[in-house]
Structure formats: structure tokens, C-alpha cells
Amino acid sequence: VIVPVHCFLVCIGTLVFMLYDLINGKHSVSVPASANVETWQQFKASGRSIERTHVTRDGVPLRYHIVPPHPDEANGKVALICQPLGNCGWLHWYSTMVTLGRGWTFVCWDYRGFFSSEEPRRLRNISVR
Q1: Which of 7, 35, 68, 83 has its CA at 20 to 30 Å from residue 45's CA atom?
Q2: Is 23:81 a contact under the CB 8 Å cutoff?
Q3: Calpha distance 67→91 (Å, rounded)
Q4: Least confident of 26-35, 81-90, 98-107
């Protein structure tokens, strides 16, 4: 009984926010097209994404990715990009990165057992909470 009621309330809340956005447009963000906004292909070719590996306390190598800010636009802000399971890299988040701007530092990682991160020796140590 609790789950259907919760799902119903989430749907109603989503519809309310969508209507608010349509009527007022206050949550809409437009990104001005300019020479400073690079395309996805330009970003990939730039090599600005740095890949590193961190070994956890239990010995599992985890792959993480960093896009440092542009030196002239750095604002000291960091965005931790928590990928949905099954996603890897920046493609799905590139529009968000462009919207926030080149002054941000972006960090994402591959979860244990996914993509370039290794599995722990004991599989029961994998959890997403």
C-alpha cells in the first residue's frame, strides 16, 4: 500500500513542477551559443578528461575521471557526477557540464565491478547505498 501511494505522490509532484515550468519558465536554463561552447566531439578530442585509479582500503582499484576547470575561468566549485549504473564517461553529462561552465571541476567514477573498476575479492562487498 505504501509503495503505490508513494509512486502516485511522486507522479503528482512531477506534474506540478512541469506545469510550473511551462507557465512561468523559471526553472528553464538556456545556454547561449558562442565560440566558447565546444561540441562533444571537440571536448573528446581536447584530452581534458584525466583518468586515474585509486586503490581502496580493501585493495580494489577504482577508476575515476576528472575534468579540471579552464585556468582563466576557475571558480573553485566541484561537481561530483554520480553515474547511474550502466553509464560510463561524460557523454550523458556533457550538456550539464556545458550549462555549468568551464569554471567547474567535474569528477565521476566507475563503481566497483563496472567498466574500468575491478571487483572486490568478496562479491558481497559490492553495494550501492
Answers
A1: 83
A2: no
A3: 13
A4: 26-35
